[in-house]
Amino acid sequence: MHREQQLQSIDYANAVAALVADMSPERAAQVYDFVCFLQRRPAYPSPIALDEDDWLNDSEEQMQVEDALWEAAQARHHDKFTSLITAARAEIDAGTTEPLFTKNGELKLP
Fold first, then answer.
1. Sign for the pseudo-dihedral over CA of 7, 11, 12, 13
2. Can you tell me the distance from the alpha carbon of 24 to that of 22, in angstroms, rounded to the nearest whole number?
């Protein structure tokens, strides 16, 4: 990892730590569970270069570029999104959805 990326990761870690410090132990444990969940998943490449992905300080122009990328992806895959929405609504209506969290508030993992 490059030095700049390490510093950015440290900035994010400090920002998350400050948020978690104000949470109950149960909520902090959920954050920890979610981080573990993310570590087990493959990282997907961003359409934006890492040195341009300082989202906390994005300019209006950068946000417009990112919005355009998302809109293009949505337009390109409109049928897939529509199919997923229809399937999700059918599951909700049928009562066959499963909760994302356990009764203890922990993230349910497959």
1. positive
2. 7
User: Got the DSSP string for 36-96?
Assistant: HHHHHSPPPPPSS-GGG--GGG--HHHHHHHHHHHHHHHHHTHHHHHHHHHHHHHHHHHT-
Q: Find out whether 54 and 62 touch, Cβ atoms under 8 Å.
A: no
> Residue 83 corresponds to which tokens in the numbers above?
């199919």
Distances (CA, A) of 32 to 4, 99, 101: 25, 19, 14
Work out the burial of residue 7: count CB atoms within 10 Å of its CB; fewer than 13 is exposed, 13-18 middle, 19 or more buried: exposed
Determine if the pTM surpasses 0.70: no
Band of the pLDDT at 50, cuts 50, 70, 90?
low
* pLDDT surpasses 70 at 27: yes
Specify whether the CB–CB gap between 108 and 100 falls below 8 A: yes
